[in-house]
Each structure stands twice: as C-alpha cells, then as structure tokens.
Design goal:
elongated; mainly alpha; about 130 residues
Length: about 130
C-alpha cells in the first residue's frame, strides 16, 4: 500500500531535518496506520487521528468528486459502478471504521449532506435516462 512507501520516504527526509530515530519511527508507524489494511496496527492517539483524517476525505461531496473519477479512470469501472462503490464506501467508513468521537461527529454532518446529494443525483440520473429513451 502507499502508506508503506510513504513511510519509507519519510525516514530519510526527517533524518535530514535532524529528528531522532525514535521520533522518525513513530511518524513512520503513524503514516502506515492511515491505510485501512493496517487498522489492526493502530496504537496511539496520533495513529487514530491520522487514520480518521485520511478517511474523512472519503465522506462527503468532496469524497464523491474524488472517488468516482478515480474508479472510472484507474479501476476501469463504468460510471454507475463507480457511483455505487463510492456510496458503499461512504457508508462503510462512516458506520464502522472511524476511530475517534470527533471524527464521527464531523463525519455525521458530511454523511447527511452526501445522502441528500446522492438522492438528488439519483433523481437527475433517472431523468436523464428517461430523456434518452424518448
């Protein structure tokens, strides 16, 4: 995952700035923990905050605008598949994975806004499909 690559790149950078090896290892560990696949490695409050900050960008309209084109362009999904995957991802992250109370509170508002966005998106999408059938 990109967390491991980023962590390895961080070591020499922080060393060049004069940070001690203990601090560098803690930072590298925190970077690794932002990946969903590394959730079982989360130990510290910094790990939890890093994880939540990364996941909060998936929830909300910005997450939709970021995720759907990614799935279409890089994962070869059709638009409808990408939209559904993004909807599912928003629900999964919101309901299960966030680590802190603060992140859950922030996510609740973004999630509610996004659900309204999805409702309007579905109305628009169905209307466009009906136009094409005419």
């Amino acid at each position: 995952m990109h967390g491991g690559i980023s962590a390895e790149m961080t070591g020499p950078f922080l060393k060049g700035l004069g940070f001690d090896s203990e601090f560098i290892e803690r930072v590298k560990h925190t970077i690794i923990c932002h990946d969903t696949g590394s959730l079982d490695k989360v130990k510290s409050v910094e790990d939890r905050i890093m994880y939540d900050a990364d996941k909060l960008q998936v929830i909300g309209p910005l997450g939709f605008c970021r995720g759907v084109p990614y799935f279409v362009m890089f994962k070869d999904m059709k638009l409808e598949e990408a939209v559904q995957k993004q909807k599912n991802m928003q629900i999964r992250v919101f309901e299960k994975n966030l680590q802190t109370k603060t992140a859950k509170k922030i996510a609740k508002h973004s999630y509610e806004v996004t659900q309204e966005f999805f409702r309007l998106f579905d109305i628009w999408d169905k209307a466009e499909l009906e136009k094409l059938k005419e």
